[in-house]
């Protein structure tokens, strides 16, 4: 099982929506994942413990884990490409 850290400004509302969309897409592709949410400012301390970090805002920090920007999962513009990119890291 892959672990995905989803980060937004406050680690509550936006990351909940994005995490749900990622889980649904991965499940439909036959990939089982576990998501957890946090604030963007927590990513540097937590990110290395996950297989992938997905953010809804600008992340300028450094982690050894791949980071995918996923604002498109909120706007809908480029959503499919972002989901495919996320899935490519989880297979």
TrEMBL record:
UniProt keywords (A-Z) are: Transferase
Q: Does the keyword Transferase apply?
A: yes
* PROSITE patterns noted in UniProt: PTS_EIIB_TYPE_2
UniProt-recorded Gene Ontology molecular function terms? protein-N(PI)-phosphohistidine-sugar phosphotransferase activity
A GO biological-process term: phosphoenolpyruvate-dependent sugar phosphotransferase system
**Domain PTS EIIB type-2: start-end pairs:** 2-91
Q: Per the record's keyword annotation, is Transferase included, yes or no?
A: yes
Q: Which domain of life is it from?
A: Bacteria
Q: What is this protein called?
A: Phosphotransferase system eiib component type 2/3
| Organism ancestry | Bacteria, Bacillati, Bacillota, Bacilli, Lactobacillales
